[in-house]
Amino acid sequence: VVNTILKEADLFCPNSVRINFTIYHWDTLKAVLKQTATKILLLTNPHNPTGKVFSDDELKHIVALCQQYNVFIISDDIHKDIVYQKAAYTPVTEFTTKNVVLCCSATKTFNTPGLIGAYLFEPEAELREMFLCELKQKNALSSASILGIESQMAAYNTGSDYLVQLITYLQNNFDYLSTFLKSQLPEIRFKQPEATYLAWMDVSQLGLTAEKLQDRLVNTGRVGIMSGTTYGDSHYLRMNIACPISKLQEGLKRMEYGIRS
Known about the structure:
- The structure is a single chain.
- Helix content is 40%, strand content 15%.
- The chain contains 8 helices and 9 strands.
- Strands 2-1-3-4-5-6 form a 6-stranded mixed β-sheet, with helices on one face. It has a 3-stranded antiparallel β-sheet with strand order 7-9-8, with no helix packed on it.
- Helix 6 packs parallel to helix 8 (245-260) and helix 7 (210-220) crosses helix 8 (245-260).
């Protein structure tokens, strides 16, 4: 859930979000935040890779802890548009306008990362001006990509019908994935996410190390699926299902072949 920056090292709160989207280890989070070296909390909402959408109560709790220990919040909300019916997204800035910045982009939702566009919402005017000054002084950045600006404006102003169709398509892909796993690979535990187009799959019952599983997937099944080791848990795979269902079907067949061989 969080990753606090300490010089060149990262401090993590391990196992904070599980496959059922429940947050555990609030005491661990508190212990990390109260350390004097902890200055920033990196929050991802909706969460990558689990697909969890933080509830209002959870966000309020996080904000209260950060305020208690004077920790600045940087919230990455790039998946905020891709939320399914059973969940409701709320930005952390609904609960605080102090010591917080929200980072976002339309590029995930509308598949336009090549146009290079992102934006920050910083409620405090003084801090916003300081940030812009730092960009200019250190990185010589005085303006954003014109194509990035225009593409994001067009997407947000005219893309609502597309977004509805996208979420419906992604939901169908997740339904297919769930059915396939239950039928063909019941050892893999999977709960459909509340948001994002990422499937966070528990493969611990396969009895394979992360290295062995990757070897079977890549070299036998000829399919690439990201190992959970990238996110700190080798018992998971992260699969991107934002693709034509025909490609998903082929990928799942290859995954099954690699695992069963």
